[in-house]
């Protein structure tokens, strides 16, 4: 089972990349409680609800047009997330725009967290768009 979203952002791909690879970027739209290093092989940590949930994502790919992660096991990571894969694909579009194709793939089934995560990721795409366009709304999940 996969979660898929696509959104057009009024910014070139190079303006979007920091928002999906750096702590500062993630804090403008996703979560204020994170540790992120933009380098292949590193494990970034995203924490939610006062640290009661933590997702360790290994950076598998990092290029100007694609970012890919895999969720690893962790003491505060929900088991159904482990092994899921997140990708951000950036496609240039006319007038310095970018089409962002987002996927959160390989869910074990459609029960559990998948429906809620789909809804949250959809909202997050609009927050990411605002941040990349220079109008950050702040993190969806504040500390």
Description:
- With 143 residues, the protein is of the alpha+beta class.
- It has a single domain, classed as START domain (Alpha-D-Glucose-1,6-Bisphosphate, Chain A, domain 4, 2-Layer Sandwich).
- It has 3 helices and 7 strands; from the N terminus they run βααββββββα.
- The chain has helices spanning 13-16, 23-27, 114-132; strands at residues 3-9, 34-35, 43-48, 53-63, 66-71, 85-93, 97-105.
- A hairpin with a 2-residue loop joins β4 and β5 (66-71).
Please provide a brief summary of the model.
Helix content is 20%, strand content 35%. It contains 3 helices and 7 strands; from the N terminus they run E-H-H-E-E-E-E-E-E-H.
Q: State the CATH class.
A: Alpha Beta
| Straight-line distance between termini | 30 Å
Roughly how much helix do the residues carry, as a percent range?
10-25%
Shape: globular
Unreliable spans are: none
Query: Largest sheet, if any?
Result: 7 strands, antiparallel
Instruction: Enter the CATH topology name.
Output: Alpha-D-Glucose-1,6-Bisphosphate, Chain A, domain 4
State the helix count.
Answer: 3
Structural class category = alpha+beta
Kindly report the spatial arrangement of strands forming the biggest sheet.
1-7-6-5-4-3-2
CATH architecture, please?
A: 2-Layer Sandwich
Rg to the nearest angstrom? Answer: 14 Å
Share in β-strands? 25-35%
For the secondary structure, the number of strands is 7
Q: Order of helices and strands, N to C? A: EHHEEEEEEH
* Mean pLDDT score: 96
Q: Which superfamily, in CATH terms, is the homologous superfamily?
A: START domain
Please tell me the total number of domains: 1
